[in-house]
Amino acid sequence: MEEARAEGNEIISAYKAALEKVFEDHKREAVRQSETRVRAESTNARQQKNQAMAKAQLDLKRKQGKVQQELKDKLFAEAEELVREFMKTADYDAFLVKCIRSALDFAAGEEMTLYINPSDADKKERLERETGTALTVSAEDFTGGMRAVLRGRNILIDHSFKTALANEYDKFVFSGGDDIG
């Protein structure tokens, strides 16, 4: 009986040890799987956060670009208004004379056609007297200033405000704001 009991206890101990080993193996596997799942979920969460941040940055850049474009358009509309006001002054008339004389010096006697803006047609005779050259009123409105064409050399001398404003508009870029103090 004792032998049977000892044998039974031994079988129970062996079975218990086997169950504990299976339990420990199962526990280790469950911990490993949960750690793997946590790492995967953490990676997924980081990726989602990065995607959300990238989308938010892109939206912000679009909004910033739109606002900058609106401000740029508004700024150049004001600049055009200032040009129109300048064109009503005596300084503008002096500017035209200076540009015409500069073009004449550049041409050095070569045949050239000098154009003034249609809005300056009333100044044509006075400018011709002051500069001693014939002027042509352009069919195209170039927002003031003057243009000259030297056909012999295929040269356009462009002192028009339309071109100057367009060039400045194309070059204009808002700074990052870092230099604002």
- Low-confidence parts: none
CATH topology of the largest domain: hypothetical protein PF0899 fold
Largest sheet data? 4 strands, mixed
CATH architecture of the largest domain: 2-Layer Sandwich
The CATH C-level class name of the largest domain: Alpha Beta
Instruction: Give the count of structural domains.
Output: 2
Decide which structural class fits the backbone.
alpha+beta
CATH superfamily of the largest domain: ATP synthase, E subunit, C-terminal
Could you state the oligomeric state of the chains shown?
single chain
What gap, in angstroms, lies between the N and C termini?
99 Å
Number of strands: 4
Return the average pLDDT rounded to an integer: 93
Rg, Å, rounded: 42 Å
Word description of this protein:
It is a single chain. The protein is an alpha+beta fold and 181 residues long. It has two domains: 48 residues; 82 residues, hypothetical protein PF0899 fold (2-Layer Sandwich), CATH 3.30.2320.30. The protein has four helices and four strands; from the N terminus they run H-H-E-H-E-E-E-H. It has a four-stranded mixed sheet with strand order 2-1-3-4. Helix 3 links the parallel strand 1 and strand 2. The radius of gyration is 42 Å and the shape is rod-shaped. The mean pLDDT is 93.
